[in-house]
Amino acid sequence: MARLVVRWPARLPVNLMIGALLVALVVGVAALSLIWTPHDHAAMTIRNRFQPADGVYWLGTDQLGRDIVSQLMVAARNSMTVALVAVLIGGSIGVALGLLASALGGWVEDLIMRVADIGFAFPALLFAIMLSAVFGPSLTIAVAAIAFINIPVFARVARASANQVWTRDFVAAARAAGHGRFAISRDHILPNIAAPVIVQGTIEFAVAILAEAALSYLGLGAQPPSPSWGRMLSEAQTLMFMAPHLAIYPGLCIVIAVLGFSLLGDGLRDITDPRLKRRRA
């Protein structure tokens, strides 16, 4: 099985290093929340509402006396979980469809791509509202909606990358040896399109975090008492003049997470596609 080789540069791109640092920070905080938080994120102490930052409450408390740091940490875990599951589901289905379209070609490829085009025209928010009307709002609904919008993205990336690999000599040799199209797709095409798929997955991770925050802001994502950056923003919007920090902290968390994964994806793309890096220069 032949594979395309990705040569890592002697000096890593700055955007890759900054993105990796921010991603490590967010993922580390999310992982830490599994075993420790400064306080119980759901514990409400009304007498401590709007407590300023001090040695006990590092970023203060909200309108219900809940510790803001603990809520941000658990919200990071929820956001990472939703984004990871949604991207894995959407990516798996999308890549499978893209490989199938590239392998069979003809009317099958046209049908899959036209269905993907319809998926692009169907926003995650509308899909989440439809599912919420039937099943009620929850994190599961957010995962399903975000995974749905990821399918056509990965299908197009996988199909375009696979079409390029199908023209290579080692694929022609595999076909001459009697290997079927599905076996070639599994053994030769998939390993050689892994790099662009991973890059796209990193970028879609940032999109998924932003989508989860938007859905939670509208009440279609995480439900109380499970915290979410988006719902924290929603709850803080009526307190902007009284306690603006309640909106600033979750907003910064969203910016850091989305920026980190976006920069990481751009850096990986620069490495896997040197021509793109030269065009940017």
Brief synopsis:
This protein is 70% helix and 0% strand. The protein is an all-alpha fold and 281 residues long.
Features:
single chain; 281 residues; MetI-like fold
> Count of helices?
11
Global morphology: elongated
Helical percent range?
Answer: over 70%
Strand content: under 5%
Poorly predicted runs are none
Q: Based on DSSP secondary structure assignment, what is the total number of beta strands?
A: 0
Under CATH, the homologous superfamily reads MetI-like
Secondary-structure element sequence?
HHHHHHHHHHH
3D architecture notes:
This protein is 70% helix and 0% strand. By secondary structure, it is mainly α. The chain has one domain: MetI-like (MetI-like fold). The two termini are 35 Å apart. The model has no long low-confidence stretch (mean pLDDT 89).
Strand and helix layout:
Elements: H1 14-32, H2 68-104, H3 106-120, H4 124-135, H5 139-165, H6 169-176, H7 181-192, H8 194-217, H9 229-236, H10 245-272, H11 274-280
Helix pairs in contact: 1-2, 1-10, 2-3, 2-5, 2-7, 2-8, 3-5, 4-5, 5-8, 6-7, 8-9, 8-10, 9-10, 10-11
